[in-house]
Specification:
437 residues; mainly alpha; four-stranded mixed β-sheet; 6 strands; 4% strand
Length: 437
């Protein structure tokens, strides 16, 4: 009995070294896999850099030939052909992204351009011929309708002239003595009140004035403006003094910065910001996948040793680039972009930095309005409790940035209205994890 027990005990002891050996082999394989991936990515990056240098040298060769030997047409043509081939090779090895950071498009020759123009003219001529044939087939019906319309217009005109001969026309005026007709025309021109931002709540988040609102929050001027929703508005717009209107998110952001004297004082830095903003705008015409890939490569090349795109602080350049990839400030959108940026730790770091910025979060909540609450990535301890029944969301309310106060009553006497006010202020301060002063 004792010997069998000892044998079983020994079998249990001898099984542990095999488990340890398996774990060690697995660990070694994981380390080897990481090293292999690192070496592979380094080789890819080195190959891309060498191709970039090749393109640069070819471009310099073309420039020197055009400058120093403009008569050597054949040499210039050969050099241009080599440069185009180098650019295509770079794009093929860089997931379709060209040297300029945009999706690569092969240049067309003169013959191809002429063929394209000819095809467009042919299609337009065919469309015009079809419409002409269709109009000829329906000419009889159109003539009848036109005759009826002309007779009706003549009868209406004669009726108005008869009425005008009986009653003299009088132009109505308002209390100020101005013509009511001119007042209506001026009001139609001034469709947006001064300092009011109008947006369409049905369009995607990046088509709303997220850049303008973020810059207004950063410059502490957001309280100077009111935000309204118009389901028929095609673009975001801002009402100006005198009845003028600024249309478009970028134009609104520039106006907000310049009107409050908050634009960058350094001309060089401002020019760099404008360059990034223009680049971000140029990417919005491409498919999402190509735009994300271009932004990832651009961020990886420019932010390896920096935190922000321009200077040492958060600027409109970062907000514009963030908007170019869809303004992914909410949790689900951020996860999708982090997955798309998985090949670049630098791009992922920048994405998290911008998405966590308080101004970006507040702008997100503002464009969502008071009927929907933004879903930000929070810790379990930071999640807000569900909204109490009968309560409304705070417009622009962001976790940790809500401050309420109980103002003193001038008369000094407390009544039931004070208890309601202090309870509401206390509730919102606790829900948004802010403070009541």
């Amino acid at each position: 009995m004792s010997s069998s027990r000892q044998t079983k005990g020994l079998s249990k002891v001898t099984s542990k070294p095999s488990d340890s050996l398996a774990f060690t082999n697995t660990l070694r394989y994981s380390v080897l896999q990481v090293k292999t991936d690192t070496i592979r990515m380094t080789a890819i990056n080195n190959n891309i850099e060498s191709l970039r240098e090749k393109v640069t040298k070819c471009a310099e060769t073309v420039s020197n030939l055009k400058k120093n030997s403009p008569d050597e047409k054949s040499a210039i043509a050969i050099a241009v052909k080599e440069m185009l081939a180098a650019k295509k090779e770079f794009a093929d090895n860089n997931d379709g992204i060209g040297v300029e950071g945009k999706p690569y498009q092969a240049p067309m020759s003169k013959a191809e351009k002429k063929a394209k123009e000819k095809a467009e003219k042919t299609s337009k001529a065919a469309a015009a011929l079809d419409s002409q044939n269709e109009g000829a087939s329906n000419s009889k019906k159109a003539d009848k309708k036109a005759a009826k319309k002309a007779a009706k217009a003549a009868a209406k005109k004669s009726h108005k002239e008869a009425a005008g001969s009986q009653k003299p026309s009088q132009e109505k005026t308002d209390a100020g003595g101005q013509s009511k007709q001119s007042t209506l025309k001026s009001w139609s021109r001034m469709s947006i009140p001064e300092n009011e931002i109008v947006m369409n709540p049905n369009v995607p988040l990046y088509e709303r004035p997220v850049i303008a609102l973020t810059m207004a929050i950063l410059t502490n001027t957001i309280l100077d403006y009111t935000i309204s929703q118009n389901h028929l508005a095609r673009h975001s717009a801002l009402g100006l003094p005198g009845g003028n209107v600024v249309v478009g998110d970028i134009a609104m952001a520039h106006y907000l910065l310049k009107s409050k004297g908050k634009s960058a004082g350094d001309p060089q830095q401002q020019a760099l910001v404008d360059t990034w903003v223009n680049y971000a705008q140029s990417l919005k015409g491409f498919p999402d996948e190509q735009t994300q890939r271009a932004v990832m490569m651009t961020l990886d090349n420019n932010l390896s040793q920096r935190t922000y795109l321009v200077g040492e602080k958060f600027t409109m350049a970062d907000v514009a680039m963030f908007s170019a990839i869809g303004f992914p400030s909410q949790t689900e959108d951020r996860k999708l972009l982090l997955k798309a940026f998985q090949k670049s730790k630098t791009a992922q770091r920048w994405l998290k930095l911008v998405a966590d910025h308080p101004a970006v979060k507040e702008a997100t909540q503002l464009v969502l309005g008071s009927h929907k609450e933004a879903a930000f990535e929070e810790n379990e301890s930071d999640k807000m409790e569900p909204l109490a029944s009968g309560m409304n969301l705070l417009e622009g309310g962001v976790l940790g940035r809500v401050v309420t106060r109980f103002p003193p009553e001038p008369s000094g006497y407390l009544h039931i209205g004070h208890s309601k006010a202090v309870l509401l202020n206390d509730y919102y301060a606790r829900r948004y994890k802010g403070r009541l002063i």
